[in-house]
Amino acid sequence: MAPSVEIAIPTTSLSPTSPQHTIYHVTLRLPLRSFTVSKRYSDFSAFHTTLINQTNAQPPAPLPAKSWFSNTVSNERFREERRIGLEEYLRAINEAEDGRWRTSPAWRAFLNLPTAAASTVASTGNTSARLHAAITDPGNAFNAPITDPTLWLDYFRDMKAHLHDARLALSRRDQETTPQKQHESSAQAKSSLVRASSMISTLEEGLLNLSGRGAQASKTQSSASLGEGELRRRKDLLINARKEKDGLEDLLHAMAAKSKIDYAVASIQDKEALMKAGNSLGDSGGRRTPAKSGRVLGKETERTRELDNDGVLQLQKQMMKDQDTSVEELMKVIIRQRELGTAIHNELEVQNELLKLADEDTDRLKSKLDVGKKRIGRIS
């Protein structure tokens, strides 16, 4: 029976870091998706050692040996030979009749495989169903601790999907014209963001477990482990995801605040329009006269045109507060400049004293030279 995972290393690249190293792009094709993981030779070497320790057996193909005289960065031919050797090494494990290496935690962690793809089962439909469950609903229990590196990745992809749903809901909310539709979109975005926030917390706890510092550290160490580089990469992924979640929450709050302001402005404008209409009818004996729009005093700007009097007052207070803050910052800068000026002045005084001492020493030396010249003149 053909394996459920197709593995290849079609390309390599050089890292942008210094010193450079070769990166091998391992492509995996599963029944429901395809993805690529990037590894360097040291990752293969560490995986090979872990695989032997977990299975107590040598893999069906040997790992390409490390060379002390050739470098894959500068030697393109040697880099291609190693790429072919590593590809044959992975394919031999993947296509071997003995599945002990494919069912090991090291194999899943190294290739970032879903848990359902760890073993080859007799029924192809059962494999596809388990893969689909692992991708769409990893873990089945979101509150359960994460102790498997592959499950962590599936959980992370699910969290990113919730962030994507929140962003789409906010985009729809910005395009809706009725308050009811806007409220529905906002509720959907808030639900997705709350879900993503709880999942980020679970992922952070899972990283602690995978690094050996969490409550489930012993279970993690017994099943699979991650290197320091992979842990840092996943921490960066979580930091970026949290920033994205915070940005979407700020956008949601800004939209809600803008809706409240627009509703208040519309209500005030309706009241003013009714009052002006009533006054015009009373003054003209029942005849309707066009009412003037906008404020009479002052000059309108782009920032005040859409605000009522209370809004303009709040804007002025905010501008005055910003100006006070700017003045305070400027005062701090001026005080700092004054301190620097005082320090420079003191340093100049010290330098002047040193120059005076140097002048006095120069005068004494000159007088001694004159005496010496006179004595030389008398001797000669």
UniProtKB/TrEMBL annotation:
Domain PX: start-end pairs: 2-117
Transmembrane segments: none
Record-level GO BP terms: vacuolar transport; vacuole fusion; vesicle-mediated transport
GO cellular-component term (any): fungal-type vacuole membrane
Domain T-SNARE coiled-coil homology residues, every copy: 317-379
InterPro entries the UniProt entry points to: PX_dom, PX_dom_sf, T_SNARE_dom
Keyword Coiled coil appears in the UniProt entry: yes
Major location category of this protein: other
Cell compartments where the protein resides: Vacuole
Keywords for the protein's UniProt record, in alphabetical order: Coiled coil, Vacuole
Compositional bias per record (Basic and acidic residues), positions renumbered to this chain: 173-184
One example GO MF annotation: phosphatidylinositol binding
Location of the region described as Disordered in the Swiss-Prot/TrEMBL record: 173-193
Physiological role: Essential for proper morphogenesis of the vacuole. May exist as structural reinforcement on the surface of the vacuolar membrane and be required for maintenance against rupture by osmotic pressure.
Protein name as catalogued: SNARE complex subunit (Vam7)
Organism: Penicillium malachiteum
Taxonomic lineage of the native organism: Eukaryota, Fungi, Dikarya, Ascomycota, Pezizomycotina
